Amino acid sequence: MRVFLAGATGAIGRPLVRLLIADGHQVTAMTRSPAKVDALRAAGADPVVADALNPTAVMSAVADARPDTVINQLTAIPSRLDPRKIERDFALTDRLRTEGTRILIEAAQAAGAERMIAQSIVLVYAPGPPGTVHTESDPVNVNPHKSYQRTGGALVELERQVLGSGGQVLRYGYFYGPGSAISRAGSIGGDVSRRRLPIVGGGTGVWSFIHVEDAARATVATLANETAGAYNIVDDEPAPVAEWIPALADALGAPRPLRVPALLARPLAGGYGIESMTKSQGASNALAKRELGWQPSFPSWREGFRRGLG
Predict the structure, then answer these.
(1) Residue 145 backbone phi and psi in degrees, to 5
(2) Which residues on neighbouring strands pair with residue 273, listed in sequence order?
(3) How does DSSP classify residue 61?
(4) CA nearest 192: which of 181, 203, 202, 179?
(5) DSSP 3-state assignment of 300?
(6) H helices of 165-284, where?
(7) pLDDT digits (tens, 9 = 90+) for 209-258
(8) Which residues are within 8 A (CB) of 136 and not within 5 positions of it... i.e. 6 or more apart?
(9) pLDDT tens-place string over residues 37-87
């Protein structure tokens, strides 16, 4: 298959290029950085340099590639996030998820591509009752917390555009593994090692994780399934904050994390940080397993943290 991959050098883009090539696909890999062209070519892809927010450049790049499928992995997330300033840190990513997605869909349709597969995240769901593990039939959050309003809205808009064009949305869990923030070299790994990431409140928020290699493998598996819709790409075990932060510390050989009351943590964590530590909810991968024929190689973050941090 001819695949056009936008966002080919991010945490998931790098393993995705490798797996697509290994699976026999012809990959045109788009990057905004000329410095990354040689690495993409060495991996076996046909690199192209384009600004994802430049309609003329994207239209030309996609037209030249003549892809069967376009994969949208566009993000520009800083290596270190400030939870008090999420909208600042996600400003460019929000534009990529709205304007960039629209440009890419128009280019794909003009080039005759059959479909688009796009990156979303499980944070898109509207909060359910305590203990909810979200399935793909649950509603998305059209009224996110004010500290996350524009960024949450950008996710909803990305999904609206992609699903409306007959494409597929992959709602990834939190990435961990090489190249991600949750790794030995990543910002969250560093904070845990230095005892700078405490458990806030009761640590009752629940996260769903996915190793970057497993996320890439699920994306490749999606190429064999042409049914439009959304899939949760997460591991088998939703992870309470009170459990996963100590497990990550143990995997890194770090001291046990501190515990901080939510009221005291708010000035440093902001509203978004408090929400994610105390109220976030997990997601189920049952549909992706059934319809994509995919199984995570790390079924649980517990094993993944021990063996897959890089």
Answers:
(1) -55, 145
(2) none
(3) H
(4) 181
(5) coil
(6) 187-193, 212-222, 241-251, 262-278
(7) 999 999 999 999 999 999 999 999 999 999 999 999 999 999 999 999 99
(8) 171, 229, 230, 231, 232, 287
(9) 999 999 999 999 999 999 999 999 999 999 999 999 999 999 898 988 988
